[in-house]
Amino acid sequence: MGSQVGDALFRELLLENEDQVNVRGEEPERVLVTNCDHFSNNGGTGPCSDEPWDAPQNAANHWKSTLAKVWLKNVASCGLVIVFLVLAAIAAFVAYQSISDFQRQAKHPAMSVSFKEVQSYEAPGIVLFPESAELLSCNHFYGTLPPLDHPGEPGTLACVIREVYSESNVHDDVPWKRALVIRGPEAVLQQELLFLHFRLNQSQQDFSGINYLLFSGFDDFTHSNNSSAYLEKLMTSRTLWSFSGGFRTWVKMSLIRTPADDSRLDEFHQETNQVKYNNKRQEADQLTELFFVVFEWKDPFIQEVHHVVTASPWNVAAVLCGVFLALFKVADFAKISVKWMLKVRRRHRGHRARQLNEMPR
Predict the structure, then answer these.
(1) Is residue 255 within a helix (H) or strand (E), and if so which, with residue range?
(2) Span 52-69, mean pLDDT?
């Protein structure tokens, strides 16, 4: 009974030794178990029979468990490769969207508005197209507008005025024949006002009004070689406004500046307020129309508009780097997994061949 227990313990020790050898990658040796029952009963003397122990069966069981582990590792490796591929696909989609957004925003940038405070404005130009109306008075005031002095009669012309005639043929269908270019107000902090007074006699039109436009840089106009061509160019890029007869039109201007590539684009916005003029004079000719207009700056702030591209090219570059890193990681992991599986397969084939050679024929 004691000899059988000792043989069982000896076999377990041999099995543990074989597992450790296999784990280290060494070739397992064939295990022979000596039938020492008779040897032990005879006190250590006597013949002992060498009989082969059931090594093939236990080796098969060991390699079944090893194959199960290899299969699990292969499944886990495939799962990790799939996860890396999914992450790489998501990163590629994000990179595509980032590049598309950057291209779209580069073509259509956002607008950013900032306000710049000034002590005084550059003198603007006010272009009026009076047609047959007559300019009676032109004055600069500060703060408040005084009461009218002899309305409908000629007064002082205390303004810088340039009269320009169109170079087009008289018979051509042109929008203007004659224009008055007047230097506008500058001192915004002193509330400088420009007051203009017109009279239109014997008007046969159903509606009467005087068109005008605003532009920045009156000095640029005075230094131009061809005043008519300068106004023609302004007509194509500026908006025309008008004020009606029988009213006092109060125009408050604000300047919006948009930087361009090599220049700047100035645009005027205005707020108008009209008040009816009460003519106390009983004139025989009721076809005479009086026009009153006041120009002033709304506030001392210039609105500067900038084009801003919110999508940064560095963000696109970072996303692309992430995509390439993910792809390299997938390729490296797949390469290591394939090498490991081929190594395990070669070991399994070699052990299987040795097992077949050791089996009794």
Answers:
(1) strand 247-259
(2) 59
CB within 8 A of 214, min separation 6: which ones? Answer: 124, 125, 126, 127, 184, 238, 241, 253, 268, 270
Q: Quote the CA–CA distance of 25 and 222 in Å, as a whole number.
A: 97
Q: How confident is the model at residue 92 (pLDDT cuts 50, 70, 90)?
A: confident
Among residues 179, 279, 286, the alpha carbon closest in space to that of 234 is found at 179
Alpha helices in the chain (DSSP H): 2-23, 37-41, 55-107, 218-222, 227-237, 313-358
Going by their DSSP bridges, the two strands 247-259 and 301-308 should be labelled as: parallel
Q: At 34, list the tokens.
A: 């000596």
Say yes or no to pLDDT of 96 above 90. no
Q: Report the distance separating Cα 158 and Cα 314, nearest Å.
A: 59
Given this model, what pLDDT does residue 103 score? 80
| Residue appearing with tokens 């500060």 | 142
Name residue 265's beta-bridge partners.
258
Q: What is the DSSP string of 124-155?
A: EEEEEE-TT-EEEEEEEEESSPPPPSSTTS--
- Residue 243, classified by CB atoms within 10 Å of its CB into exposed (0-12), middle (13-18) or buried (19+), is buried
pLDDT confidence bin for 355, thresholds 50/70/90: low
Q: Which residue has the higher pLDDT, 3 or 144?
A: 144
Proportion of the chain above pLDDT 90, given as a percent: 23
Nearest to 137 by CA among 161, 153, 162, 156: 156
**Residue 293, both tokens:** 């207009």
Q: What is the DSSP annotation of 179-223?
A: EEEEE----TTTTEEEEEEEEE-S---SS-EEEEEEEE-HHHHHT
What is the rounded CA–CA span in Å between residue 87 and residue 93?
Answer: 10
Question: CB of 133 within 8 A of CB of 210?
Answer: yes
Mean pLDDT over each residue of the chain, to the nearest integer: 75
Q: Which pLDDT tens digit goes with each residue over 153-209?
A: 888 999 999 999 887 655 455 667 889 999 999 999 999 999 999 998 866 667 788
